[in-house]
């Protein structure tokens, strides 16, 4: 594939996301030969740094954030020759003229503005870019999540950005869609004939989607207290994964075909009434406990967190789709911080055989289960029942495991590596369209409002556990259990 010339302007260039994800992603793309010789990364932030000072800082952070076997000093130095730094202030617009002067004036040259900043700065940045004439016909803007705090604020940001960039040049990023395992879920569903006949209410009993984190707020207390798990994870990551699992086969892999199919799922989600919120959602907040064998503080003891905070660090809920394919099939969504393990997985539980003629050992469920692992190790596990060796016809559970890493024997691309290159190449398939975002906020808002109006505090749970007991009770009322409890 031809390498494209581009200028990538990285707002928030000294921030955490740039250090942990974006610069490492670009380093790997350089190492693997995907950056054109004249490709440029222009980092910008408020700090008064020279390019040499920023390169020294970036080198230290790359060495810190990359595995030792991935960091190569000569490769790093070569990559950093593509990197420049310009100080600018998104608040008052100072430095934007200098930033504009660094951009190459070639009409066909791709120009990417990656906004790795607070969403509160998105509107100002875009206005300043337009004012100094930096928005070329080939310019694109990347918006990081969370895009607003609710439907109204999201609408306000989208309106402002949309006055400067057309919809086909706005890339709303959800890094979960860039994960290799999510791409493989699309391949599993639409590249094979064996699963499609089973992928409906006739054969699927329930679906569980879990994103669990061992870490706490990690120094982002003030931000997280204003956000919470529902906005931070459910409204985007979990709903996007639900869309990939539940959507109808698109007519092609072109961007609007896939995004039209996802939009149908979001619009089919049954809205929550106040009663539904009480009965079908659980919000929790971690208390002091242990993680990795070490004691950790509770959420209310974290720096930057008010001692009376009611912000949720855990969410579990039961969603349903009002369409022909999935009517009556519950989708259980769950996410939280300071949980027992770091996992992201999709579990598809199939119905039991209609007439069991073979006996399974007591206490063992005989239904089949497909587990799609998104992290930490991408792969698939298909749980089946097989005959126990020896006389008789008794069943025992077995598993067919597929590790994508082992199957391909190649380094798996980080999500941001794929997504950054998709922006440069103009591929919109893995990015959220505005109507998708509106539909997601429309569904989540009644939950947020009901929680805000309620006198109930989040359910406490011990750090290092799997969340509040109410989460197990939520799924237990349907005679189900979370995957790790089976």
Question: Your description of this structure?
Answer:
The chain has 486 residues and is an alpha/beta fold. The chain starts with 5 loop residues before the first strand and ends in a 10-residue tail after the last helix. Helix 6 runs antiparallel to helix 14. It folds into two domains: 6-144, Rossmann fold (3-Layer(aba) Sandwich); 177-414 and 428-485, Dihydrodipicolinate Reductase, domain 2 (2-Layer Sandwich). It has helices at 16-31, 51-65, 73-80, 96-102, 122-131, 151-162, 180-190, 221-225, 228-246, 255-268, 274-280, 404-408, 415-425, 434-453, 469-476, and strands at residues 6-11, 40-45, 83-87, 110-115, 139-143, 170-172, 204-212, 281-287, 289-291, 294-296, 314-319, 331-336, 343-350, 369-375, 379-387, 395-403, 459-462. The strands form three sheets. A nine-stranded mixed β-sheet has the order 16-15-14-13-7-12-11-8-17, with helices on both faces. It contains 15 helices and 17 strands. The mean pLDDT is 92.
Discrete helix count: 15
Indicate the low-confidence ranges by residue numbers.
Answer: none
Name the assembly state.
Answer: single chain
- Would you give the CATH topology of the largest domain? Dihydrodipicolinate Reductase, domain 2
**Largest beta sheet, briefly?**
9 strands, mixed
Quickly give the structural class.
alpha/beta
Task: Give the strand order of the largest sheet, numbering strands 1, 2, ... along the chain.
Answer: 16-15-14-13-7-12-11-8-17
* Global Rg: 24 Å
Percent helix range: 25-40%
- Report the top-level CATH class of the largest domain: Alpha Beta
Inertia-based shape: globular
CATH architecture of the largest domain: 2-Layer Sandwich
Number of spatially distinct domains: 2
Q: Beta fraction of the residues?
A: 15-25%
What's the N-to-C terminus distance? Answer: 46 Å
DSSP summary, beta strand count: 17
- The CATH homologous superfamily of the largest domain: Dihydrodipicolinate Reductase, domain 2
